[in-house]
Amino acid sequence: MLIDPNDIEKLCEILHRAGEKIVFTNGCFDILHAGHVRYLEKARSFGDCLVLGLNTDASVRGNKGPSRPINSELDRAEVVGALKSVDYVVLFGEKTAETIIAKVRPDVYVKGGDYTLETLPEAKIVQSYGGRVEFVQMVAGRSTTNVIEKIKNMEG
């Protein structure tokens, strides 16, 4: 379910008061693949409710370059929101998820194993209120970049 960024803080307050353990992760999720599905299932296993922060088209272009994303933010939100592991999707336009994390205040923040506490700017916010950060190993060979390269090679 896509939640307006202006409403996410109130929703998460309600969930916390109801005793729900909120997990948050974020990313582009441009061309969904098995690596994404496994990652999101693992993230969801850390709590009762998974909130996925989805980069807007503008922030994906800023992070990945002018040829990305392949799919629009609303299409990406619809696809990831349809996964059973994802409870809520919220769009954010900043380069990092720090602002949206400050609103969600997840009990657990999950990122890929290619990050560390030192390279993850959002970690300090989560730790400041007693939340924890978990890292999930990525599935080898599964990435949107690899999918795009495979398609390009098929065209040649």
Automatic annotation (TrEMBL):
Q: Which InterPro entries match?
A: Archaeal_FAD_synthase, Cyt_trans-like, RfaE_dom_II, Rossmann-like_a/b/a_fold
Q: Which UniProt keywords apply?
A: ATP-binding, Carbohydrate metabolism, Nucleotide-binding, Nucleotidyltransferase, Transferase
Q: Report the EC number(s), separated by commas if there are several.
A: 2.7.7.70
Write out the catalysed reaction: D-glycero-beta-D-manno-heptose 1-phosphate + ATP + H(+) = ADP-D-glycero-beta-D-manno-heptose + diphosphate
The organism's superkingdom is given as: Bacteria
Domain called Cytidyltransferase-like: residue spans:
24-132
Q: Name one Pfam family in it.
A: CTP_transf_like
Q: Which GO terms describe its molecular function?
A: ATP binding; nucleotidyltransferase activity; phosphotransferase activity, alcohol group as acceptor
* Biological process, per Gene Ontology: carbohydrate metabolic process
Q: Protein name, please?
A: D-glycero-beta-D-manno-heptose 1-phosphate adenylyltransferase
Q: Identify the species of origin.
A: Mitsuokella jalaludinii
